[in-house]
Design goal:
Number of strands: 9
Distance between the termini: 50 Å
Strand order of the largest sheet: 2-3-7-8-9
Strand content: 25-35%
Largest sheet: 5 strands, antiparallel
Oligomer: single chain
Structural class: alpha+beta
């Protein structure tokens, strides 16, 4: 099954990466042999689920959110005043702002982190107020302490080594930690979020001033000044693969607290 990188890549020099005559490469009955993806059941595109709840790594090992194709929205406005002080000398002042929403925010893809929340840990029987109990999360499941508290993770000794019975999934290594068994996808740590959910929001406010002086013989001098502030939440570009200054995330499960300065906006220009 070709992934979208394979489909978009040139098979050879001078050969097109794709042709419109093939239509949607994931449509039912497509000539490429891809399994059909039909809305709304195409989450996540990568990795593909081969069985309910089982999504082995694909190539490339990335994820695409089901709503990643939603177009962003940008609202812009301005209010300006212009005044001629003396003949040939004009000053201008304007407030310019905009608000953006529905931008792709890979760093806000909670499922891609594949991490444990306090609620998940507590539901598994771990006392989140006890340091010794939390330490079990980093303890191999072969440990006596883990086996005593989680007898469902039975360990048997085979000639080739340990095996978990019943296994978390087929061939799950018994040398893994308890925390790994509690992940939503215990077969890996996390998935690189190539195209994340459209949760990115932006704020921009500025004062823009300009002075224009017209001299004789068609000579004109201009001076412009901008005092601006940009804020972002979860987005700095369409994807973190192309973002020169990736947003920092304090808590992916608490969306509001991740609002921060846009490092691509200079305060004074």
């Amino acid at each position: 099954m070709p992934d979208f990188y394979t489909y978009a890549d040139q098979p050879a020099a001078g050969v097109p990466a794709g042709q419109l005559k093939y239509g949607n490469p994931f449509a039912p009955g497509n000539p490429l042999g891809n399994a059909p993806i039909v809305w709304p059941n195409f989450t996540p595109l990568y990795p593909f689920q081969q069985a309910p709840g089982y999504a082995p790594p694909e190539s490339p090992f990335i994820s695409i959110d089901r709503n990643a194709g939603r177009l962003p929205r940008q609202l812009q406005w301005s209010l300006g005043l212009q005044h001629e002080l003396i003949r040939g000398l004009v000053i201008e002042g304007a407030y310019v702002g905009n608000r953006g929403a529905w931008w792709t925010a890979p760093v806000l893809c909670t499922s891609c982190y594949n991490s444990l929340t306090l609620q998940q840990v507590a539901a598994a029987g771990i006392n989140t107020s006890s340091a010794s109990s939390l330490a079990l999360l980093n303890t191999p499941i072969t440990s006596t302490l883990v086996q005593q508290q989680f007898p469902n993770l039975q360990i048997v000794t085979l000639p080739s080594g340990y095996k978990v019975v019943p296994s978390v999934y087929s061939s799950f290594p018994a040398t893994q930690t308890l925390g790994q068994t509690l992940r939503a996808q215990p077969q890996w740590d996390g998935v690189p979020p190539f195209l994340g959910p459209p949760l990115g929001t932006t704020w921009y406010d500025s004062f823009q001033g300009k002075v224009t002086k017209r001299f004789s013989h068609g000579l004109t001098a201009n001076y412009a000044f901008t005092w601006q502030k940009g804020l972002i939440n979860g987005t700095g570009a369409d994807t973190s693969y192309l973002t020169p200054a990736d947003p920092r995330i304090n808590n992916v499960y608490d969306y509001g607290i991740n609002k921060q300065l846009n490092t691509l906006t200079r305060p004074l220009v």
